[in-house]
Amino acid sequence: MAEGQRAQSEQEERLDDSQMPSIKITKRVDRSFLMMLMHTVMRPFKGKLVHAPKEFMPAGSPQLELPKKASRKIESRERQVEGIYVYDLSAKESAPPASVRQEKRLKRIYYFAGGGWQSPPSSEHWALFAELVPKLPDTAFTLVSYPLAPNSPAPHAFPQLMNFYRKVMEDAQLSGEDVILVGDSAGGNIVLCLVVNALLEDQENNVERPCPAAILAMCPSTDMRRANPDMREVVKRDPLLNIPFVNHTAQVWCGDWDPTDTRVSPLYADVTPLAKRGVKVHGITGRYDILSCDALLFREKCNQAWVSGEWLDWDKQMHCWPLAFSFKLRESIEAKDWILDLLKRS
User: Is pTM beyond 0.85 here?
Assistant: First the structure.
């Protein structure tokens, strides 16, 4: 695609206040031949491309190891917060200059990787971390190894995660850090649920405890009912996910909680506290992703509640396509760069 055509296909829309009061949306509609070819090849095999792991993690937070390939660019320091393993990632031999830390307030990203609530970070996740960390010198980057289903479903994991959230937010306030919670897919679901429910709890108790500056949810799962009728149409074009798989992962994570419980389905939560506390909600959606049907409803709910944020909405893109940037796919590289630019400005 020529540069002029690409620029024409990329629109940054700000609709009138009655429709989109707070969310800035970058719309993309282009798709390269290579991406189209990959989707075509993937689609007949999508039932085999994503599946539950053969061996489940034990209950609790799993320990992780830095893959050899990622270790060429980043280092990892393990610690525990409220019984949850976290990994502080830093670029090798590239400590930020003192002037940077003096001029800018330190930011910290807590990243929750997706994987159907059942799998630890994939090689694609580690490739993304190795790409982002060296390019964010004023930002501390921490990977969160949250408890995984089925041995740690939401009824067991969420209370521990809420304790973790409260602790890291208190620590951030003491150290002067601005926090951004980032998650993709299942991880996007968790970061949304944590912040929304924590703020609702604070509102109910008439207290104001520390909260993040922003959330970034990449292709998040927002409704565990999986009842959106639009999914039946989108699944015909989705090259990666199918409805039985996403139904299964939702059921395993929910455990004995109702799928409309706001601790697992942020779509049913009151999101007005996000606007009141100034928490920005950023997001990414691909229109060839069956989970985008509910994510778009959540985005609209935020719009109507005057929650601020920036969203990348790209037609003809699959679930979490930015993670495929290492395969040299143009759309994945540009989406990854959009994420990097947003994190630098947030």
Answer: yes
Number of domains in the chain: 1
Q: Which is nearest to 203 in space by CA: 276, 280, 303? A: 276
> How long a stretch of residues is the chain?
346
User: Average pLDDT in the 108-114 region?
Assistant: 98
| Residue 122 neighbours by CB under 8 Å, 6+ apart | 113, 115, 323
Q: How far apart are CA 26 and CA 18, in angstroms?
A: 19
H or E stretch at 256: none
| Average pLDDT of the chain to the nearest whole number | 91
The answer to whether 126 touches 70, Cβ cutoff 8 Å, is: yes
The answer on pLDDT for 154 being more than 90 is: yes
The confidence band for 49, taking pLDDT boundaries of 50, 70 and 90, is confident
Question: What backbone torsions phi and psi does residue 27 show, to the nearest 5 degrees?
Answer: -100, 135
Mean pLDDT for 37-60 is 86
CATH number at residue 37: 3.40.50.1820
Region 206-223 average pLDDT? 98
Q: Which residues pair with 142 in a beta bridge?
A: 88, 110
pLDDT digit string, tens, across residues 6-17:
433 444 443 334
Whether 246 is covered by a domain: the verdict is yes
Residue 20 belongs to some domain of the structure: no
Q: Directed axis angle between helix 154-175 and helix 186-205, to 10°?
A: 70
Q: Residue 322 corresponds to which tokens in the numbers above?
A: 């930015």
Helices 330-345 and 33-42 sit at what angle, rounded to 10 degrees?
110
Task: With respect to residue 18, please indicate whether it lies within any of the assigned structural domains.
Answer: no
Which residue from 249, 251, 181, 263 is spatially nearest to 216, judged by alpha carbons?
A: 181
Domain extent for 231 = 27-93+103-345
Could you tell me if residue 3 is inside a domain? no
Give the N- to C-terminal CA distance of the chain in Å, as an integer. Answer: 30
Contact of 145 with 65, CB cutoff 8 Å: no
pLDDT at 77 over 90: yes
